[in-house]
Design a protein that fits this description.
This protein has 514 residues and is mainly α. It is built from 19 helices and no strands.
């Protein structure tokens, strides 16, 4: 299959998977809120972010190994693949053990992370809930390293299918358990079994697809490969610290400066955002693997052309998604969970703006990773972390949840917004970085225009479920119509129209053959 075919297949399964999982998660969350309440919900969100901090032990090892796999996969060098996977297995087993031990060791100190523990939940129960979350987090590292090979080989869809089946089964069981028993411990037990099971099945399937992984004779990495791997891991340590500290501390700070209950309310918005983010990242993971192949095999101009197409598509997609979020976020939360779970319009705007800026970094960072540009901006995350924590703590004390979110926005705008594209354009694409900002602000202007027109039309919609459906229709049609009117003469638009036509012809041929 061609690179486009691999991207299309991975994207198709990612979309189907996420639609199914999003629907399941919304039902599970609704049942969770009704049966257990917002304090349990807040604890769940808080513990997830605490354990995300422990993922620092992974040190960016996965990203470094995936980059190292691109070339041997393209060349069919199975010996080097085996060597890299053995190193990966050892590293992830150490990470899993560390997460289990260090996570459990934090149990007596949970009160540090919360301004006031929920009075209706006994402290002993809170600690056991946390320990079960630790087990679930640690268990995920022992088999999932195999999935890196599927990703690098543009076969992410295999993992997607297995993960979707396991998570849907777990969601059905969790709904039943909550409705019948209202027992949070059984709910967590199902989650642990599902995590272990899906990772184990991914490992078995990878062994079937790549039987050479079972060979007991594995060569050690040569000195040059070790040097490259150590260098990339060393650089990715800083990137990992930056990512975790910026994107996994909001709930912790909210719990400290506001309450556990507000973390529960915020987590509902994050559930919607993460559902969209998962779809987006799964799709761009597919593109990233293909970009790694392009970097290993193609000329400099081909690399820039591929990146330009990716960036155009990203700007269209992210602009459309964020317009939909800005208009539909609160109406959806109100219909789903009720008015008691709403945040202010200003807070929602900052959540969406943070999401837009995060997403627009994805094509830049994925291309950087595909090109192995880990070292050049290795100190960037340190500055980002210091600004993020400083601004979030300062503003969080006085402004609450809005201040914490503004801290994230400030850190993104002052550091990665400038550094990441500079590194990519200078060291990877060999172009002047001003081209990036011309396109960025041009795409942003079109998104603001499309959002303004859409918002004006949606303001005419009535309240209630009927008005929400009408707003959904406006959001689906109007922004895309504006994008088509603005971009239909561009080369990027023609490129994606060509892909769409080729895929349509394939579908028609398959239909005729049947």
């Amino acid at each position: 299959m061609s690179r486009v075919d691999y991207v299309a297949r991975n994207a198709k399964f990612a979309a189907i998977s996420q639609i199914a999982l999003v629907l399941a998660n919304f039902v599970v969350r609704k049942v969770f809120v009704v049966t257990l309440g917002e304090n349990y919900l807040g604890l769940s969100g808080l513990f997830t972010d605490i354990l995300s901090m422990l993922s620092l032990a992974e040190l960016g090892f996965g990203t470094s190994v995936v980059y190292s796999l691109y070339k041997p996969l393209a060349e069919g060098d199975t010996e080097k693949i085996k060597s890299l996977m053995r190193v990966f297995r050892l590293a992830y087993r150490c990470v899993g053990i560390f997460v289990l031990v260090a996570g459990t060791a934090l149990t007596p100190f949970l009160e540090i992370f919360v301004s006031e523990m929920p009075a209706e939940i006994p402290l002993t129960e809170i600690r056991w809930i946390y320990v079960l979350n630790v087990v679930n987090s640690g268990a995920s590292y022992f088999f999932i390293y195999r999935a890196s090979l599927l990703f690098a080989d543009q076969k992410k869809y295999v993992e997607t299918i297995i993960t979707t089946v396991a998570k849907l089964a777990a969601a059905a069981l969790q709904i039943g358990i909550l409705l019948l028993t209202k027992n949070y411990f059984l709910y967590l037990g199902i989650m642990i079994v599902a995590t272990f099971g899906q990772n184990f099945m991914v490992s078995l399937q990878t062994d079937r697809m790549y039987p050479f992984l079972k060979d007991k004779t594995v060569k050690k990495l040569d000195s040059e490969d070790k040097h490259v791997l150590k260098r990339n891991v060393g650089a990715n340590v800083f990137h990992k610290i930056g990512y975790v500290a910026v994107f996994s501390t909001d709930s912790i700070l909210m719990a400290k400066f506001v309450s556990v209950a507000i973390v529960g309310v915020y987590s509902n918005y994050m559930l919607v955002r993460k559902a969209l983010q998962n779809v987006i990242e799964l799709f761009f993971v597919s593109i990233s693997a293909s970009m790694g192949n392009v970097n290993a095999c193609e000329t400099q101009e081909k690399k820039y052309e591929a990146y330009s197409h990716i960036y155009f598509f990203a700007a269209w997609l992210f602009g459309f998604v964020c317009i939909c979020l800005m208009i539909l976020y609160n109406p959806f939360i109100e219909l789903w969970l009720g008015k008691d779970y709403l945040l202010s319009d200003v807070t929602v705007f900052v959540i969406v703006l943070n999401f837009y800026m995060y997403c627009m970094r994805i094509p830049v960072n994925n291309t950087k990773e595909a090109m192995g540009l880990f070292w050049n901006d290795r100190y960037k995350p340190i500055a980002e972390v210091l600004i993020n924590l400083g601004a979030s703590i300062l503003l969080g004390r006085t402004m609450g949840i809005l201040g914490v979110l503004l801290g994230t926005l400030i850190s993104t705008a002052t550091v990665p917004f400038w550094v990441e594209p500079y590194v990519l354009y200078r060291h990877g694409l060999k172009k002047k970085v001003r081209q990036y900002y011309l396109y960025y602000f041009g795409y942003l202007a079109v998104t603001v225009l499309a959002g303004g027109v859409t918002g004006l039309l949606c303001s005419l919609a009535p309240a209630g479920i009927g008005g929400f459906i009408l707003k959904m229709i406006f959001c689906a049609v109007v922004p895309n119509a504006v994008y088509v009117l603005v971009y239909f003469r561009t080369g990027e638009f023609a490129y994606f129209c060509g892909i769409a036509l080729r895929m349509l012809r394939k579908i028609v041929k398959r239909g005729e053959s049947v």
